Amino acid sequence: MVAQDSDLGSWYLYLGNKKLNNQWNLHHEIQYRNYDGIGDLEQLLLRTGVGYNLKENNNNLLLGYGYILSENYVDDSSEKQSVIEHRIFQQFQTKHALGVFKFKHRFRFEQRFIEDDFKSRLRYFLSLSIPLNSLEIKKNTLYLSVYNELFLNTASELIDRNRLYGGIGYKINDTLKLELGYMNQFFETSSRDQINTIMYINF
Hints:
203 residues, mainly beta, Porin
């Protein structure tokens, strides 16, 4: 199979957050990305970090590390090349609400060590969640989720990519949320569609 024949890929995401106390938290995530439904690995991403809550509510600073294994197709052939990246990142995240509309902003700065190369970039993430069967997202709530994330290089071409996502989620309880959605990832000269399956765990 040649990956370029498939325009629709899939991402499976586990996003976890462990509250250590009122100020400190441990973030961890696994992302398994495929060129098709499953079995044709595009990228495996493991990320973790330590966060600190500021005195103001819903504001968090985090220092993190990521390990990324990419399986890239070579030109238009069926051959793949493995690329390993180590990533250090710093981020600030803040949340606020306007009525039933829940907003989240995330600003992230990444230092990327890709084989023998070094790159850095900035990312801005804006999300909106809207409860459908309640006035707030709580236990047994169905909700809509949309977000946009812009990636900016600090060198070469300014815009690296842009991700636009829309999906539907269900909050099972205070610990677990599930989402299913569609994402289009725009590059400078192309785009790619993804189906995202996401599991959020807070404990």
